[in-house]
Structure formats: C-alpha cells, structure tokens
Amino acid sequence: MNDATPLNADQQELDKFSQLAHRWWDPSSEFKPLHDINPLRLEYIDSLAGLSAKHVLDVGCGGGILSESMAARGANVTGIDLGEKALKVAKLHLLESGQKVDYRLIAVEALAQQEAGQYDVVTCMEMLEHVPDPASIVRACSQLVKPGGQVFFSTLNRNLKSYLFAVIGAEYVLNMLPRGTHEYAKFLKPSELARHCRASGLVVDEVTGMSYNPLSKVYSLGKDTSVNYMLACRREA
Ligand SMILES: C[S@@+](CC[C@H](N)C(=O)[O-])C[C@H]1O[C@@H](n2cnc3c(N)ncnc32)[C@H](O)[C@@H]1O
C-alpha cells in the first residue's frame, strides 16, 4: 500500500460511527451490544491467547471497549481505526480508566507495511462487515502477527436468520441499533472468512458462535454460528 492506493474503507460507514462516537462508553447507548458482548469475547480471547504481557493489535478498535479491557488484563495494546472521533473518545476514556493503550489513526494495510510480524495477537472484531474488501483486512492482520501468533475475528454470518436477527430484529423491532447500521450484503459466511484466512497463511483453530436471546436479553458463546461468530486463527510458523 502506498499513497496512491485507495483506502479500503467506506466513508459512509466511518461517518455513521463518528456521528455516534460521543456515546461510545454509554452502556445504554447504540453501543450497548458491544458492551454486553465484551466480557464474553475478552474471556474467550484471554483463555486462548493468555493476554498478560502480550503485544496486541486491535484493528477497528472504535472507542476502545475491547482494547481497554485487554490492557486491563495486562496486554500491551495498540488500537487502530480510521474513525477520528472514535479514537478521540478512546483516548479521552483512558484518562478516566487509567489504562494504557496506544491509539493510532492508520489503515491496517498501511500498518502492515511498517510493523509486519510484530504482534503476538491481533483482534479484529465487528469490523469486517463494514469494509469494502474484507480479504485485504484479513491479509494485513496475518502480515502483522508473528509466525505462530493468534488472530481473532468476529463478524456476522449471511443467511436468512442473520438478516432477520441482525437487521430486522436489532434495527427495526428491538431498536437495539440505529437503522442502517448493517448492510446485509457485507455479512460474511464462516466458510468465506475461513477461505480468506487460509489464503493469507492463517490456520483456523476454531469457530465459535455468539448468540443473543431476545427473551432473556443475554448473550452466550456456543456452537450456533448462524448470526454472530468468532474465528480463532494462528499464523503458520
Ligand atoms: C462496530 S464498530 C466495532 C468496534 C470495536 N472493534 C468493537 O468491537 O468494540 C466498527 C469499527 O470499525 C471501524 N472501521 C470501519 N471501517 C474501517 C476501516 N476500513 N479501517 C479501520 N476501521 C474501520 C469503525 O470506525 C468502527 O470503529
């Protein structure tokens, strides 16, 4: 990637998050789902990667919900995003929490040119469904992690159920998210994401579902990958 390379980003998507950025740390705001799933994904990542003292990159970190929680587990975290406002909010929140995270405004493809193979763990959560070319993000994440290091992705599956739950249910019935948050065509089937991973030199260790029960309003991890899911990968040594 050089200065002439077009940015792998959708400005409308970045604007959507920027407009809401001031509410990022309000657990009852549009970002409530991220607050609600964070303990689950943090525990999952920590249990597989052992975050303490690891050099971790959080790609598409937004306001820093996951980045900060990983720092609180003892990781040395860098968070990158292309949303300026979200990063400002993330930096401000460090003053409140006392955590340490290195937040930077840079595309993951550009960082891969500068810091290839420097991270023990790379996380890229709830971001691939917002970019024009997810395969390019996966490739850059793979370049950034050390041989033998781990990469974690989470995104939305693409099928009738995920359309009904993640778009109709969350945006139109339960009003959990603003309308237009998700574009169905950008959702990724686990097989498609796994193919991008393998093409980038990543071995997929496991696929885990993240489900929401609208009656109990509780999220849980399990085998059901039909709506939201996480992929745990390892860079070939
Ligand atoms: C749903 S939020 C997820 C934030 C965070 N990863 C989390 O799960 O708590 C999506 C984030 O992706 C960021 N984003 C979208 N396109 C991006 C791109 N091309 N490069 C970097 N970040 C991007 C947005 O600015 C936003 O912060």
From TrEMBL:
Coiled coil: none annotated. Keywords: Methyltransferase, S-adenosyl-L-methionine, Transferase, Ubiquinone, Ubiquinone biosynthesis. This is Ubiquinone biosynthesis O-methyltransferase. GO terms for molecular function: 2-polyprenyl-6-hydroxyphenol methylase activity; 3-demethylubiquinol 3-O-methyltransferase activity; polyprenyldihydroxybenzoate methyltransferase activity. GO terms for biological process: methylation. S-adenosyl-L-methionine binds at residues 41, 60, 81, 125. Pathway: Cofactor biosynthesis; ubiquinone biosynthesis. Its EC number is 2.1.1.222, 2.1.1.64. The keyword Lipid metabolism does not apply. O-methyltransferase that catalyzes the 2 O-methylation steps in the ubiquinone biosynthetic pathway. InterPro entries: SAM-dependent_MTases_sf (IPR029063), UbiG_MeTrfase (IPR010233).
